[in-house]
Design goal:
Elements (H helix, E strand, L loop, with lengths): L2 H14 L3 H14 L4 H14 L2 H14 L4 H13 L3 H14 L4 H13 L3 H14 L4 H13 L3 H14 L4 H13 L3 H14 L4 H13 L3 H14 L4 H13 L3 H14 L4 H13 L3 H14 L6 H10 L7 H13 L7 H7 L3 H15 L17 E7 L6 H11 L6 E7 L8 H9 L2 E4 L5 H10 L4 E4 L10 H4 L5 E4 L14 E5 L14 E5 L30 E4 L8 H12 L5 E5 L3 H13 L7 E4 L5 H7 L5 E3 L8 H8 L4 E4 L8 H8 L6 E2 L2 H12 L2 H17 L5 H20 L7 E2 L5
Parallel strand pairs: 1-2, 1-4, 2-3, 4-5, 5-6, 6-7, 7-14, 8-9, 8-11, 9-10, 11-12, 12-13
Helix pairs in contact: 1-2, 1-3, 2-3, 3-4, 3-5, 4-5, 5-6, 5-7, 6-7, 7-8, 7-9, 8-9, 9-10, 9-11, 10-11, 11-12, 11-13, 12-13, 13-14, 13-15, 14-15, 15-16, 15-17, 16-17, 17-18, 18-19, 19-20, 23-24, 27-32
């Protein structure tokens, strides 16, 4: 045995004894005499891997391969170093090279799985792990990788079984306990996940990974202060822990501290500039800060790295839409729709309402989203029949504040028949600056509960303990919604109402309140719920809502004294190139007319003016209305306009109601989905079908014809004033009685043991 061989054997013994510095010194001693000693370089690479010095490991292993390219073991070890350096494609190439040399090499097969999963090719990674486990059934790394791949593929029950198998191999593995907790989190079992993370911490109290994961469980349990403290402990132990900074950003986001969330994301990105999750949260914070241009740039960075990352394409479309920036809009919308058709969760349901007008595709989008985000939990209500003297109704909402939902329903809630109904308001989101509307909503209920600091199952348990007969979700898939509460089935009957103009896509939501226009019988198949059809419009109204006296002078609101004023105060994101083409055509064919739009920042007005000029319309013909806080004053200024122009595919809802309530006729084009049919519902119930068109060509022609006939417009305004007083659309008390009639019918049916079925509420004369 020569001296080099003896020294390398001693180095191996040192490695086995955990004496890495001594082993490294022996290998370097060999290399000083034999610079091209393959075994010394291989061992040095192995030592660097164990020490976590991945750049050195990669350098030394590449040097070994330069001497002996045909070493499968070195190729496999180099893959480990490259994976740690976040270079998965190079790692995959190394694994493939190793497997060409030895197709039955378990370590290379396992590392190949790691590389494929790092490249988001989870199904291929899973197959690689399964090949490994056929060769070595008790290979811990392969079993743990198998569980991670199943987790990424959203196959949670199988992932949990695989985690348990990994723990059977190594019950003291901190990583395996953390992985089990992560699977439980995705399975919406945060209490069990917290127990798994605590078990990991009992094995390694200072583990940054376990602390970080524990914080996430606490966040899901609505314990933000504890979560933030746990993330802080993780960051004390590892200040450059990008994931913990990212998760701490989520806590700030939840609390409405968007600037703080942004700062924490930037800390994470300072550590890992290509960290997609941090970029995604950063984009959300920027959108909520209404810094839409920066948000768009952030989502573009994500898509440049991963074109199908989560809902980044949809978020980019939303950011641009809020700027009136329609660059690549049609291509983006087509990509998102195609991904939904392929079964990918490419958009949240609310955004999809204005991306796509197909009710079938909206159902598919909502079903995927609900299945992923709010899977059905173990039901709290088990079929018990309640016999309360008063029917117990719970209204769940994140919008019991100065919000359109609150303005629409306040009067109905205040007038509930307290001899027959006991009402509970469940506020899902604390109002950071409670105003008069929040105070009014609190008084409208028999009981009012702030539940923002309680987990979904805790809230559901509270509803079950109160023996709520009917739980009504007024927020659903809009911001602040917590459908996870209804996923626990706390009540015998659960209803989707008002806040979200589409289907929940969840089996545990029994009914949706609509009407014959928003949901014709032929459309029922596009809803996961059974339909309650109100006799007039589904939309409640508050007939006590004041309007400031008088009509403002046009010059006082920035309008020209003469000419037809077309108005559309819809949110900017509801505008789109097709709609704008029609509007600009209407302006071109109506000399002297202007279009009065909701105001925005300089970027919004600049973009919309540029779009008008591209269509041959002078910038002066767009007038932008500033926001007015006082609702009565805002409503009064509608009187300065001549005709409200609705949008498709997401039309005016509360905005259409506001215009009609103020006496301004609304022209709409009915679309296919609920969201595209709300103005048509209101106009039909008002007995004004002449303002409901079925094509955009008809819509444009009707608008131009009306603008050229001041007499016809005056007749419409007079008819609206007459119908508003005569028809039941704005009769709050009549609406309340119809709604209560529906509740009583549904409850009687449920108490008889009958399954949910569509209901047409009989009109009360």
């Amino acid at each position: 045995m020569n001296a080099a061989t003896a020294e390398l054997e001693r180095a191996l013994a040192c490695i086995h004894a955990g004496q890495l510095p001594q082993a490294e010194a022996l290998c370097l001693q060999v290399l000083r005499r034999e610079a091209q000693n393959f075994n010394a370089l291989q061992l040095l690479g192995h030592i660097a891997l164990q020490a976590g010095n991945y750049p050195a490991a990669a350098e030394r292993l590449r040097a070994a391969l330069a001497i002996r390219p045909g070493s499968a073991a070195v190729q496999s070890n180099l893959a480990v170093a490259l994976l740690a350096l976040h270079r998965p494609l190079e790692a995959l190439h190394c694994c493939e090279a190793a497997l060409r040399l030895n197709p039955q090499f378990p370590e290379a097969l396992c590392n190949r799985g790691h590389a494929l999963c790092a490249l988001d090719r989870h199904a291929e990674g899973l197959a690689s792990y399964e090949s490994t486990l056929k060769l070595v059934p008790h290979f811990y790394d392969a079993r743990a990788g198998h569980a991670k791949a199943l987790l990424s593929l959203k196959r949670y029950p199988q992932a949990l079984l695989s985690c348990d198998s990994a723990l059977g191999i190594n019950p003291h593995s901190v990583d395996a306990w953390c992985l089990r907790g992560s699977v439980l989190l995705k399975s919406k079992r945060p209490e069990d996940a917290l127990a798994a993370f605590d078990r990991a911490l009992s094995l390694a109290p200072d583990s940054p990974e376990a602390l970080n994961n524990r914080g996430t469980a606490l966040r899901d349990l609505r314990r933000p202060a504890e979560a933030l403290e746990t993330y802080a402990r993780a960051l004390e132990r590892r200040p450059a822990f990008a994931e913990a900074w990212c998760n701490a950003a989520n806590i700030a986001l939840d609390a409405g501290h968007y600037a703080e969330a942004l700062a924490r994301c930037d800390r994470a990105l300072g550590i890992r500039p290509d960290f997609l999750e941090a970029l995604n949260i950063r984009g959300t914070a920027l959108r909520l800060l209404k810094r839409f241009d920066e948000a768009a740039a952030t989502y573009q960075k994500i898509l440049a790295v991963s074109p199908s990352y989560g809902q980044a394409d949809s978020h980019l479309l939303a950011a641009r839409a809020n700027l009136g920036d329609w660059s690549e809009r049609e291509q983006q919308a087509s990509r998102i729709i195609a991904r939904v058709e392929r079964g990918e969760s490419a958009s949240a349901p609310h955004a999809f309402l204005w991306i796509c007008d197909s009710p079938a595709q909206q159902l598919q989008c909502a079903q995927m989203y609900s299945d992923e985000q709010f899977p059905a939990d173990a039901p709290l209500w088990r079929g018990e029949v309640y016999r309360h003297e008063r029917l117990r109704i719970a209204y769940l909402s994140a919008d019991f504040t100065d919000h359109p939902v609150a303005h629409l329903i306040a009067g109905v809630l205040e007038r509930h028949d307290r001899t027959r109904f006991e009402t509970v308001g469940v506020s899902l989101q604390r109002d950071p600056a409670p105003g008069p509307m929040h105070a009014r909503m609190q008084k409208a209920f028999d009981h009012f509960e702030e539940v923002s600091e309680y987990g979904d199952r805790e809230v559901a348990t509270m509803l079950r303990e109160r023996e709520i007969d009917i739980a009504i979700d007024l927020t659903l898939h809009t911001r602040g919604g917590r459908l996870g509460i209804l996923a626990c089935r706390p009540a015998p009957l659960q209803i989707n109402f008002l806040g979200f103009a589409g289907t929940a896509g969840a089996r545990y939501v029994d009914y949706l309140i609509g009407d014959g226009v928003t949901v014709p019988e032929s459309h029922e198949r596009f809803f996961s719920e059974r339909i309650i059809r109100m006799p007039h419009s589904f939309m409640p109204n508050d007939d006590a809502q004041p309007i400031a006296d008088g009509s403002p002078r046009r010059r006082d609101v920035g309008l020209p004294e003469t000419g037809c004023v077309f108005c559309s105060f819809n949110n900017i994101y509801k505008l789109n190139p097709l709609m704008f083409d029609i509007w600009m055509r209407i302006l071109r064919e109506t000399p002297g007319s202007v279009l009065w739009l909701r105001g925005g920042d300089g970027a919004v007005t600049g973009n919309l003016i540029a779009e008008a000029q591209r269509r041959g319309v002078d910038a002066a013909r767009l007038v932008f209305a500033p926001r007015i806080e006082a609702m009565d004053v805002h409503l009064a200024r509608y009187r300065a306009a001549d005709l409200f122009l609705d949008t498709v595919p997401y039309g005016a809802h509360a905005t259409a109601r506001d215009a009609l309530w103020a006496g301004l006729p609304v022209l709409t084009c009915v679309g296919s989905s609920f969201a595209a049919r709300v103005a048509a519902s209101l106009l039909t119930a008002l007995g004004m079908p002449e303002l409901v068109t079925s094509t955009l060509e008809e819509y444009a022609s009707r608008a131009v014809a009306l603008a050229h006939s001041p007499e016809a417009l005056a007749e419409l305004r007079a008819k609206l004033a007459h119908q508003r007083a005569l028809r039941p659309v704005f009769d709050t008390d009549l609406y309340r009685r119809h709604l209560e009639s529906a509740y009583l019918s549904l409850s009687s049916r449920q108490r008889r043991g009958e399954a949910p079925a569509a209901l047409s509420v009989p009109p009360i004369r």
